[in-house]
């Protein structure tokens, strides 16, 4: 890795930490990695970066050129992997002016090209509840 060669995606940082020996197994104790690097690794393992591939990122960057996004906006879209228009609005500067209705197409492209993070798949599965546990007329609070 060249010093000051540019910004890295979370995927690239995670990949670098893995190449240095970071992991969830017991060899973690003898790996030549600082405790702070393990904290970064543990965090990135719970984000979209853990399910991304170099190919999906390259494909996303290529397809996002049509939207004339800044490099920082593309980087944030890759790292955050927004799944709705509401999540894209704070990432893309002057989103309404620059993109108009194209923002919905951008959301669809993000969902198609970048893989779903495992944490998001688990939370989708946990939303279900048993209807028999709710009495008629009673409101249910989501937790």
How would the blueprint of this fold be written?
Layout lengths: L9 H10 L15 H10 L9 H11 L6 H10 L4 H4 L6 H5 L2 H12 L4 H8 L18
GO biological process, one term: transcription initiation at RNA polymerase III promoter
Family: Belongs to the eukaryotic RPC9 RNA polymerase subunit family.
Organism: Escallonia herrerae
What are the key terms here?
elongated, about 0% strand, about 50% helix, mainly alpha, HRDC-like_sf, about 140 residues, 8 helices
Describe this structure in words.
- The chain is mainly α and 143 residues long.
- Helix content is 49%, strand content 0%.
- It is built from 8 helices and no strands.
- Helix 1 crosses helix 2 and helix 3 runs antiparallel to helix 7.
- The chain starts with 9 loop residues before the first helix and ends in an 18-residue tail after the last helix.
- 16% of the residues are buried.
Write a concise synopsis of the structure shown.
The protein is mainly alpha-helical and 143 residues long.
Give helix % range: 40-55%
> Cα-atom Rg, whole angstroms?
19 Å
| Largest β sheet strand count, sense and barrel closure | none
Low-confidence stretches: 126-137
Distance between the termini: 43 Å
Class of secondary structure makeup: mainly alpha
Q: Outline, from the CA principal axes?
A: elongated
- Seen as an oligomer or otherwise, the chain set is single chain
Question: What is the overall pLDDT average?
Answer: 80
SS elements, strand count: 0
The ordered string of helix (H) and strand (E) elements is HHHHHHHH
**Count of individual helical segments:** 8
Our estimate of the beta-strand percent is under 5%
């Amino acid at each position: 890795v060249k010093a000051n060669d540019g910004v890295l995606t979370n995927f690239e940082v995670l990949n670098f930490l893995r190449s240095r020996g970071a992991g969830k197994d017991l060899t973690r104790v003898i790996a030549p990695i600082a405790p702070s690097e393990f904290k970064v690794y543990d965090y990135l393992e719970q984000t979209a970066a853990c399910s991304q591939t170099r190919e999906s990122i390259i494909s996303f960057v290529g397809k996002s050129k049509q939207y004339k996004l800044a490099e920082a906006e593309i980087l944030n879209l890759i790292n955050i992997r927004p799944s709705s228009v509401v999540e894209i609005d704070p990432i893309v500067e002057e989103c309404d002016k620059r993109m108009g209705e194209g923002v919905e197409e951008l959301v669809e492209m993000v969902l198609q090209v970048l893989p779903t993070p495992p944490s998001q798949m688990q939370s989708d599965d946990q939303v279900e509840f048993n209807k028999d546990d709710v009495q008629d007329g009673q409101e249910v609070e989501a937790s």
